[in-house]
Amino acid sequence: MIEADDTATAAALAALPLPARFEIVTAPAGLPRTKPRALNVALPLARGEHLVVYDAEDVPDPGQLKAAAALFRAGSGRLACLQGRLVIDNTDDSWLTRCFTLEYAALFDVLLPLLAAAHLPVPLGGTTTHFRTRTLRELHGWDAWNVTEDADLGLRLSLAGYRVGDLPLSTLEEAPAALRPWLRQRIRWMKGFVQTTITHSRHPVAAFRCLGPLGLLCAAATVPGTVACALAYPFGIALAVRHLAVDPLPAAPDFFANLVTATGLTVAAAGLGAMWLPALVGGLRRGWWSLIPWVLVLPFYYGLVSLAAWLGLVELLLAPYRWNKTEHGLAATSRSGAMQRRR
Fold it and tell me: Which of 66, 250, 274, 292 is a plausible cystine mate for 257, CB 3.0–4.6 Å?
């Protein structure tokens, strides 16, 4: 899929001897110039029973397509999508990519498989998503104006009575190694989560009836909850530091005098546990022993996530549909060797 005025890409593709199974589709001129709009242009042309979205820079497990077809065949008709597991391959490029690797391990190896197993709403990743084509057409494809169309579609599937399953095979990805591109990407994600929240909070009673109390709580925690926690993060840290510095624990063992401090310590411990434990479990499952010490750096990493959330709110007001693109092909390292083979 290329844009109508992208003559450079069209010329480059014309010079390649592509196999017959590839088809170059030109999107008609129009707005928005986003990935979900391109997917919607291509959706009517899909001929297969199943459809999968990969990013161009991905390195998927070669057994994914057959495994997905088998899982769809064995599953019920309500199984509309399979989410593959995304893995950062250029881990050693910088401290950001190390933390990003642990973040993805927590999300795709721990959290999302649990949500899928419990038949709870799953905010999809933007790649390695395998669909039943008829279900996508029934839901009219993707929201072309949402800059995290994947998370939005995951919620729409749940609201329509469908479920997302786990495909336990990996797709290798390249993460931004420098702060500026990392921040631009994360600003888009946070902005899109707010867009998704606005879209799906218009009919809360209907959502409660479709998802049930646990499903609605899960949807609220994973989409608006992610943004809300990121926005509140620096204020919570500042309050904790101020309280410990100005008003430490009273000398007397007074229950009510210690209640506020004890509650704060409990919340702080729970927050650190939620930050550290899934990343630790995901890293250990992958056998990434050298990454385990970097789990301790995650509180600083999530401070940057908070910055991205605040900047995302600003961008939502100033440029709600801007798609901050991420440049790829810059990886300096590759754990698997796949990135070097492609360079």
Answer: 250
